[in-house]
């Protein structure tokens, strides 16, 4: 029986947050004590936004019309333009909105994902998009340069305002509990 990984190309190496990694011709195996081993074909992963759950609504009248803009920072990766969801109509408390948007595809290295949740029904918030994008890019650049010691490669479920950002299915490069 032959594995898609084929022959090893490295010894076992230390990896982020107490993990280990070993590289092969056809990919890599990442390991953490609390999750076990994960084989990564071609040493490439994809991270997708999968939707959100609304836990409450904004203070204004009627339902909300939110959308998300993502800032993805990783070595040798640039998303142009930054990924953005559609505007979700008629969102109220208890609404579950499935969606699918690829945020990142590449090697499982230090990744930071910033999420901005914007309510669309107040005037014309699209005119503020460039301000939000510049802020997200500056924030991500600071994290990428290591000037933000609290930043790093943590992936997991995040809560933004009254809505829960959908799950990020992989936890290579770090994790949150």
Task: Walk me through the structure.
- This protein is mostly beta strands and 177 residues long.
- The chain has 2 domains: 43 residues, no CATH class; 121 residues, Immunoglobulin-like, CATH 2.60.40.
- The chain has 1 helix and 10 strands.
- The strands form 3 sheets. A 4-stranded antiparallel beta sheet has the order 1-2-3-4, with no helix packed on it. It has a 4-stranded antiparallel beta sheet with strand order 7-5-10-9, with no helix packed on it. Strands 6-8 form a two-stranded antiparallel sheet.
- A hairpin with a 2-residue loop joins strand 2 and strand 3.
- The longest helix has 16 residues.
- It is elongated and about 60 Å long.
- The chain starts with 12 loop residues before the first strand and ends in a 12-residue tail after the last strand.
Write a brief structural summary.
9% of the residues lie in helices and 36% in strands.
Biggest sheet statistics: 4 strands, antiparallel
CATH architecture of the largest domain: Sandwich
- Helix-residue proportion: under 10%
Poorly predicted parts: 142-177
Shape: elongated
Summarize this structure as a short list of keywords or feature phrases.
mainly beta; Immunoglobulin-like; 2 domains; four-stranded antiparallel β-sheet; disordered C terminus
SSE layout:
Blueprint: E1 13-15, E2 19-24, E3 27-32, E4 36-41, E5 45-54, E6 66-73, E7 96-106, E8 112-119, H1 129-144, E9 159-160, E10 163-165
Antiparallel strand pairs: 1-2, 2-3, 3-4, 5-7, 5-10, 6-8, 9-10
